[in-house]
Amino acid sequence: MSIASPFSKPQTLRSKDLSRDGGRDGRALLKGQQTKAAIVDAALGLATQVGLEGLSIGALAEVTGMSKSGVFAHFGSREELQISVIREYHTRFEDEVFFPAMRLERGLPRLRAMFANWMKRTSAELDSGCIYISGAVEFDDRPGPVRDALAQSVNIWLAAMNRAVVQAQQAGHLRADADEQQVAFEIHALILALHYEARFLKNPGSVARATTGFDHLISRYGSAP
Fold first, then answer.
1. What does 58-118 look like in DSSP terms, one character per residue?
2. pLDDT tens across 120-177, in order?
3. Mind listing the domains of the chain with CATH numbers?
C-alpha cells in the first residue's frame, strides 16, 4: 500500500498478472520484486537493531550476501532504502495491530482491541526496537524525505486511533463532550511510557500498569451508565 493512503490492504502483483507481460520479461520482473522484498525484509531486521540511520547499502549487502551494486540497483540510494523499510514496517504494523481490531464492532470493543494489539506489538519489540519510536528520536530534528515518510506513517495510525475514539463516542461508550484528540493523545502516551519503562528502565509490571492506565482512561471518559 502507499504510505500516504488510509489504512487499506496492499495491492501486490501476482505471477499470473506478470505473465501477461510475456514469459521471460514477466518472470524477470517477478524475480526482481521478490529479491527486493527479501532485501527490505533483511533491512527491516537490521534497522530494528541499528536504527534507520545505521542502515547502509554496504551493511545490507553483507547481510544478504549480495554485491553493493546489486543492492543499490533495487533502491538507487540509501534514502530510498530507508523509506522502503518504513513502508514495510507500516504494512506489518497494520496487519498486526489495525486490521485484527477491525473485525470487532465499532466503539469501545474496537478501541480496546486497537490498544491491546498496539501494546502487544510494543511488548514484542522490547528486545528489537520500534521503528516508529527509534525513528522519531533519530529524525525528529532532521527534515527530509525519510522524516516525512516516518511522520506520515505515524500520523496515519494516530488518525485511525482518533477515528476509533470518535466512533466510541458515537456508540455512546465514551462521553460526547470528551475531546477525542485528548483521549487519543493519552492512549499514545501510555504506549510511549510502556516502551520507555519496559525497554530502557527494565521495570517489571509495565504491561500491567499500561493496561490499568487504559482502564482508568476509559473510566474517566466513559459515558454514565
1. HHHHHHHT--HHHHHHHHSSHHHHHHHHHHHHHHHHIIIIIHHHTTSPTTHHHHHHHHHHH
2. 999 988 887 789 999 999 998 899 999 999 999 999 999 999 999 999 999 999 999 9
3. 15-221 (1.10.357.10)
| Lowest-pLDDT range of 35-49, 80-94, 99-113 | 35-49
Contacts of 117 (CB under 8 A, 6+ apart): 96, 97, 98, 100, 101
Answering whether pTM is above 0.85, one says no
Burial class (CB in 10 A: 0-12, 13-18, 19+), 97: buried
Terminal alpha carbon distance of the chain: 41
* Total residues found in the chain within this entry: 225
DSSP state at residue 222: B
